[in-house]
Structures are given as C-alpha cells and as structure tokens.
Amino acid sequence: MYSWENPDDRVAIVQMNSELRHAQLELLSAHCATHQLRLRFSSDDLARFGQRDILRKAVQAASALNEYYSSIEKKIPRDEAGPEPFSRLTDKQIADAVQRVSVYLQEQREHYLPAAVPLGLRQRSVMAPYFSAGLLDQIRIVELHGEPMPNPPFYAEAVSLGFLNLPQIAHMSSLTFLDVVVFNESMTERALFHALVHAVQFQILGLERYTDLFVRSFVDTKFHFSVPLEAHAFSLESRFVAGPADCFSVEDQVRIWVRNGRY
To answer: Whole-model pTM?
Structure first.
C-alpha cells in the first residue's frame, strides 16, 4: 500500500491521479455516447436489433467497470461520502441557480477577455468546415497552461443544498464563456471543437435560454455530461474526431436540436 511519506510513492500517487483523471474523462465520453443512444432508441429496440457482438462487448465492459468502481466506492470512508443528493428543488431555487450561473458566465467572459487572442490560421483552417467564418472571427481564446480555473464561488452553497457531481472546473479541458474560450491546459483541436459547439449554442439560444436549459437539465439528470447541451457537444465532437470525410455544419445541427426540442 502506498504511503505519502515515501518520496517514491508520492511520484506514483501523482501518476495514479493523472491516469485516473484521464480514465474519468474517457468515461464521461462513453456516458455521453450512451446517453445519446438512450435518447434516440428504446432498450427493447437495442436488445432486438442491436448488433450482437458489439452489444455484448458494450454490456460486458459496462458491467466490469461498474463492478470495479463499486468495489472502490465501498472502501471510501463514510465521513467522506458528502451530503445526501437533492431530491427536488423549488422553482425559486432553480430560478436563483439560473441567475447565478448566468452572471458567472458573463463575469468570466469579461474577466478573461482582455487576455484573450483570436484563433490562429491553423485553428481556423481546421474548424472552417464545421463553423461559420463569422463565429470564428468572433471567438477569442485563453490558454492557462496548467493554472486551472477555480470552481465558481456558489459551488459551496450548491453542495450544501445537495448538488452532487458538480463539474470540477479545474479538471475540464476548457470552458466556454459565450465567445471567449478558456483552456486549463494548452489547446487541442478536439477541445477547441467541443468548446466551439457551446459557442454556437450560446449564439443561437442566447445566454439566458442556454443557462436555463442547462441548469434545469442538470437538476433532472444529476450529471452535467447528461445535460443535452453537453451530450450534443460530445456527440458532435465524436463525429469531428472520426475524420474529415464527415464534414458538417455545427450551426445546422444545433438548429435541428432546437427545432425538435431536444435541448
């Protein structure tokens, strides 16, 4: 068993947490892909028509992961379990949360804007098949290079109300504040694409509606990556990673979801 007092063990513990963070991000991506399946297809249809070898492998992988992480959860001390999750919030509490998140997003935009720079020629070239020139002209970016953003000041109160599984800002690749994108580390094309999807959502929905949809969906789903706004960004990100042969307009995709009431 590792000990923090042992210098060699400390190095291993840091590496362990780095790999844990990577695994958690991959699990988020898998969760979002599964959420997309759940939104579009019933479990009965998947059981009847899903390709058998792929379905069995997915079920086996999910079962093995559940067993592994459940065994770890049982070893976490009870006094670290945190508050009980919320059951139901009043309309006023939800409205207050929407207002706080909206103010936070606007304030962070104004905070980071003076240090933000336009997209470079390379980034514009890669993103041009998916996003309008007008949006790419408007976007400004900031790279923090390992000095991550802190959690919002209202997180402590949210946790006391039972909001568990709040997205930890320091562990996120980026955060989109309307038209300003802040990267905790150096920017990657994949992270930039994901962030720009949110910029399109802000552009089409507006700050107030975006925030209202996000907060209410988070209250319903309990996980930020299950919020349709986030799930859609992950879904389109997966298409982007699949290769340039599948070029598409992100704006058109967002408008389809808006028109069909999927947000």
So the answer is: 0.72
